[in-house]
Amino acid sequence: MTTQRRSSWLDGEAALSRILSRQLGAAWEKAKPRVQRMGEQAANEGSTWAAQADRNPPKLVTHDRSGERIDEIDYHHSYRQLQQLGYGGGIVAASYDPALAPERGDAPKSLTFGLGYLFGQAEAGMYCPVCMTDGAAYLLQKFGTSELKERFLTRLGTSDMNRVFTGAMFLTEKQGGSDVGQITTTAKGGQGVPGEAVKLYGDKWFCSNVDADVIMILARPEGATAGTRGLGLYVLPRHLENGQRNAYRVNRIKDKLGERSFPSGEVTLEGATAYLLGGPGEGFQQMTVMLNLSRLYNAIASVAVMRRAVVESIAWAEERVAFGKKVIEHPLMAETLMDMASEQRLALNWAFRGVSLMDRLESGKATEEERRTLRMLTPLLKYVLGKLAVSLASEGVEALGGNGYIEDWPLARVLRDAQVLPIWEGTTNILVLDTFRALRKESGHEALFSELERGISESPGDLQPRLGQMFEELKTALTELVSDATGEHAWRDWTDRASFLWNVTTSFSKSLGYGTATDERAARRVFSKYARSTLLRKDRATAADVRAIAFT
Ligand SMILES: Cc1cc2nc3c(=O)[nH]c(=O)nc-3n(C[C@H](O)[C@H](O)[C@H](O)COP(=O)(O)OP(=O)(O)OC[C@H]3O[C@@H](n4cnc5c(N)ncnc54)[C@H](O)[C@@H]3O)c2cc1C
Asked: In degrees rounded to 5, what are phi and psi of residue 466?
């Protein structure tokens, strides 16, 4: 069913190897066999398992044969294989497992996301539980007591399938997803001491990976203030220390548009035992720390979806003959594919710029400027790339013609799965609001502007006047927006312009390790496509150009 079979998706994308080699440094040689293996398996059996798991979604089994409530999930065996590939392949363990230290060097997130990117090209569904498992581990590492770490972190961060725990986030309630300040789930008991046990009561409305072993859950301690300030974050284990099922019910699992391979449940907490992570009232702040990681996961998944769309579209166009020649040889098709491949290349470069900043932050090497750059970049990456993933997946479906729309071919599923990317971990408007929060509270524009200044100075000379003019317009617009009481109406428009400049200029930047001939060509194309110039673009793409930009 997969049109394109490659020995490894790593070999098929030279740009990825360049990025990982640069970011991992000396550790790359040690990490390479693992990444290569992931690239091979994702391209071959991983893609088959993903298609099977999508067609055979999990089922909720509420009772056993004796009528006892069990709330277990019955998975198709293909999903178990995907778990083996994802967790066993080390996507999460790359950042935590001591055994993988030589492979990650100082760049744990580059290894995690290198593996995750390849996995996500096969299966954007189970990638979500993987993301939440990392999120749970990340939170425990930062805020957990030594007891909580010992009990949960060591098993969330392992690639040993006999021991591994998976994670989940139960945040959203019926009345509030974006607006988590509306959360009504209540935590009873406890004095607000980190690690202490409480009992949880209430309903959660979106609980993906609902049978996870370790769940991060937002709740409000009894009597705490309203809004986000009163919230606490708790660790909810699926099983109690005595091995019994914890006191919550899975009411049903949702019938989703895509991402069908894993279960998203609706849950009622009936006095479930959970442990306070950090202090009382710190829950919202901790959740935002976790969101920085999960938004990066989302951005990488988006680039992976785009890559799959590009690879499948090119493979098809290389074989399909229409009007006497391969469709890739037709000028308009070559241009279409060239645009897709160019946008994907820029997305890859930009997203891994974010990953490299996160590595610096996590290793304690980041300057204050780099911290603020990442703070600005994270919502923008998630915003722009989530939307672009849907757009490229849709273009890919069309590139395959009628077959693209048919579920026997992979891109129909890829498109269905992609639609979640702009929604979870913050919808588009919420990300715009977050961007402006970073601008106002942390002077994020200073970091953004110095990043753009550097990028523009490294851009080709003939483009610098236009890029410079757009940059000046951006700065002027921001000054106006800040003093305009109705400015919020224009925030999304401003965010679009800022992220467009940032995305394009990153790929021109040699000092960041980009700026190869293919990076430059891709960035020029994307720039001319969206810069709304009245001139028709001069770049003419051939089939050979498409292959060069996609695979070198
Ligand atoms: C497949 C899937 C799996 C999920 N899994 C999980 C999970 O495991 N755990 C979990 O906690 N959640 C999960 N979610 C929930 C998801 O995180 C929320 O749906 C998302 O955060 C949006 O919240 P909402 O649905 O309440 O939408 P709302 O907050 O009601 O938003 C509706 C619309 O209003 C817009 N909007 C809201 N506020 C503003 C504002 N101030 N200004 C401008 N526009 C605004 C939004 O952008 C959006 O377009 C999942 C969702 C999906 C689809």
From this structure: -70, -45
How many helices (H) does the chain have, and how many strands (E)? 20, 11
If one residue of 126, 206, 253 were mutated to test the ligand 1 pocket, choosing by the most ligand atoms within 8 A of its CB, it would be 206
Question: In degrees to the nearest 10, what's the CA dihedral of 192, 193, 195, 196?
Answer: -70
User: pLDDT tens digit string along 286-325?
Assistant: 999 999 999 999 999 999 999 999 999 999 999 999 999 9
Query: How many Å lie between the centroid of ligand 1 and the Cα of residue 428?
Result: 10
Give me ligand 1 centre to Cα 422, in Å: 10
* Distance of CA 256 from the midpoint of ligand 1 (Å): 14
To test the ligand 1 pocket, which listed residue (182, 423, 431, 432) has its Cβ within 8 A of the most ligand atoms? 423
Above 70 in pLDDT, residue 483?
yes
User: Cα separation of 421 and 443, whole Å?
Assistant: 28
CA 219 to centroid of ligand 1, rounded, Å: 17
Q: Is the pLDDT of residue 469 over 50?
A: yes
| Domain boundary assignment for the chain | 167-281, 426-539
| 180 CA from centroid of ligand 1 (Å) | 10
**Full 3-state SS string of 106-129:** CCHHHHHHHHHHHHHHHCCCCHHH
pLDDT tens figures, 23-37: 999 999 999 999 999
pTM for the whole thing? 0.97
431 Cα: distance to centroid of ligand 1 (angstroms): 11
Backbone phi, psi, residue 321, to 5°: -110, 130
- CA angle 103–108–110, rounded 5-degree value: 95
167-281: which CATH number, 3.30.565.10, 3.30.110.30, 3.20.20.70, 2.40.110.20? Answer: 2.40.110.20
Indicate whether 2 pLDDT > 50: no
Q: Whose CA is nearest to atom 41 of ligand 1?
A: 430
Which residue's CA is the nearest one to ligand 1's atom 17?
424
Over residues 415-423, the mean pLDDT reads 98
Question: For position 530, what pLDDT does the model report?
Answer: 82
Ligand 1 atom nearest the C-alpha of 425 is 17
Indicate the pLDDT class of residue 537, thresholds 50, 70 and 90. confident
* Model confidence band, residue 434 (pLDDT cutoffs 50, 70, 90): very high
